[in-house]
Amino acid sequence: MLPLNPESFRPCAERPVRVVARAMGMPTEISAHHHPWGQAVFSDAGVVQVEMANVAFIVPPQHAVLIPPGTEHSAVLLQDASLFSVYVFLQESGQEARQRFWDRCKVVRASPLLLELVRRLVDEDLPRRDTGRYRALCVVVLAELQDAREVGIGVPMPTERRLRMLCEAFLAEPRQSKPLAQLARDAGASVSTASRLFRDELGMGFQQWRRQALFARALALAAEGMPMQRIAEELGYSSASAFTAMVTKTFGKSPREFLLQRP
């Protein structure tokens, strides 16, 4: 359940890690907000899209997006999901390495150990019942987070209103066959204006941006165990070989080498 008052879960020096479990169904959107503590959003089941001002992350199961303190973010479910929000206190002195790790948004792979520790910390009575065990769990959770492998699946996002609308519409239903003309028209812009905005705002053309968005979605589907043929169909490719060619050309590795690699 989504907490009504996030302030009641504020981490502090005595309780440096707080965890909230959320079972959420579609359609669910979490409006833009920010807070003075770090947050890691884990997907235990289902896919969630987390957006900041200049990047969107499509977070598959067994992954987490790390959100630095003060960063405005919103979220939308792409599937029914089981989520954990991990709130982290980052203001202790002598913790420069930890603060540097949280200096930007990123997606990391969550080890089975990390996921199990996070589940254990959902129990809000634990710090009162067993302070020593709670503190030990916090130490290991923070160490596992900091040691987690980063996954480069961020999709650049613009701030200009029409282009933002265009990009969000594509991410809501990403398909290779969607033409820029249709997306631009729905967002109230001409093709030439949309093309210029992609270059000015994101430093890339629509085709390059679309490949990154499709790849992010493909990674999420692969993490759920979807076969490569099905992923290609889901994203609107004519065949698995066409999808494989796109991934190999863009990222220098085949889908099997990149999408299915494990931590």
From TrEMBL:
Key words of the record: DNA-binding, Transcription, Transcription regulation
Database matches in CDD domains: cupin_NimR-like_N
Domain HTH araC/xylS-type: 161-261
Coiled-coil stretches noted in the UniProt entry, renumbered to this chain: none
Pfam families: AraC_binding, HTH_18
UniProt keyword Transcription present: yes
InterPro entries for this protein: AraC-bd (IPR003313), Homeodomain-like_sf (IPR009057), HTH_AraC (IPR018060), HTH_AraC-typ_CS (IPR018062), RmlC-like_jellyroll (IPR014710), RmlC_Cupin_sf (IPR011051)
SMART domains in the record: HTH_ARAC (SM00342)
Superkingdom field: Bacteria
Name recorded for this polypeptide: AraC family transcriptional regulator
Organism this protein belongs to: Verminephrobacter aporrectodeae subsp. tuberculatae
